[in-house]
Design brief:
alpha/beta, Rossmann fold, DNA polymerase, domain 1, 2 domains, six-stranded parallel beta sheet, two-stranded antiparallel sheet, 10 helices, about 45% helix
């Protein structure tokens, strides 16, 4: 490890669902609300949870032929009023964010959620002030591998060492798009094997964000 790495600017970018927060109840309730509204059979909790981490439109495409934009609109109607309050932080997340800030890391969030909802959630859960940015789906950024996201990050954080942290293969894909290290956490629905499979960038797998130590981060850079 470069002994001067601690003196460099380091950006840690976190996924939200199943990485920092457990919002499965809110997502499941919102998803089934949308299905029920259009008189479609509701799904078992585990089936919905397996899809968490991919864009909402894609989730609905997997389970119905009804216009996914209509279903997504119904989902967000429930989620924005009730679902956002049905989640909680994963164990020791606040303590870990505090530790990382004390060690001079810059922190951010990149999520498949709509940006305004993502901001609302981190504010409700009391962790908004830890982050330099919260990026979700919006007009400028359509997905985690949108070229505009890559341009924005690499321009704004020029000279930074960047590390992506998440529970989903799409988070690994983001790390590969940026050509930066990836830390996979096992608090979602994907195994270590799935998060490592075919990796083209340096990859580290840990049980949860609370196991993310500064020394481990430095070892990736």
């Amino acid at each position: 490890m470069n002994e001067n790495i601690k003196d460099q600017k380091i950006l840690l970018s976190f996924d939200l669902d199943n990485t920092l927060i457990n919002n499965r109840e809110g997502i499941v309730n919102s998803f089934n609300y949308a299905l029920n509204k259009y008189k479609l059979p509701t799904l078992e909790t585990v089936r919905i949870e397996e899809m968490i981490g991919i864009p909402l439109i894609e989730m609905f495409k997997q389970v119905s032929n009804v216009n996914p934009k209509k279903l997504a609109k119904a989902f967000r109607s429930y989620y924005g009023k009730k679902g956002v309050y049905q989640g909680n932080l994963l164990p020791d997340v606040t303590l870990k964010l505090e530790e990382l800030k004390r060690n001079s890391f810059t922190l951010g969030v990149i999520t498949s959620k709509k940006q305004e909802l993502a901001v609302k959630i981190v504010k409700i859960l009391g962790i908004f002030d830890f982050f330099d940015y919260v990026i979700g789906e919006c007009k400028q950024v359509k997905s985690k591998i949108d070229p505009n996201l890559k341009i924005t990050l690499l321009n704004k954080y020029k000279g930074y060492k960047i590390v992506i942290i998440g529970d989903h293969p799409k988070d690994k894909a983001l790390a590969e798009t940026l050509n930066v290290p990836f830390v996979g956490v096992l608090t979602g629905n994907h195994s270590a094997e799935e998060l490592q499979h075919g990796s083209t960038t340096k990859t580290l797998i840990i049980k949860s964000v609370k196991d993310l130590k500064p020394k481990l981060i430095y070892s990736l850079l």
